[in-house]
Amino acid sequence: MALRLRTDMPKIENVTEWVNGSISNEDLSGKIVLVHFWSISCGLCKESLPDINQMREDLPHVSFVGIHMPRSEKDTDIDAVKETISKYNLKHPQGIDNMHSVVDAFENQFVPAFFLFDKEGKLRHRSAGEKALSMLKKPLERVLGESE
Hints:
Layout: E1 17-19, H1 25-28, E2 32-38, H2 43-58, E3 62-68, H3 78-87, E4 94-96, H4 101-105, E5 113-117, E6 123-128, H5 132-146
Parallel strand pairs: 2-3, 3-4
Antiparallel strand pairs: 1-4, 2-5, 5-6
Organism: Polycladospora coralii
Keywords: Disulfide bond
Protein name: TlpA family protein disulfide reductase
């Protein structure tokens, strides 16, 4: 991941399709934001989805945005992605990024991957892979503590 800490949140635009409502950078202005990259072909991603749902419920002051990042041609099946979103009860906005517009803007290569932004829209933490979710806990607590 090359996106540097303390840089501004890249534009979330040119998404192939939104599920659970669309979102723009303007909608996220002044909010703590967690952008989560995942893929239907990623077992680790699917294992973490219930934990992400719980986090979303536990942290109402954080705006969650899911970005589905296809890793193969098969992953670009929009109906399959929507089915997974429904199956795992993902209620926050989910951008299906078949053209990798958001993926490229965030300079992301991995799933699962998490990008945490503070209320000023600055990147405060990024993590990817097997331990990505557990690595997010302390930075998230720190950013939440700063905003009180």
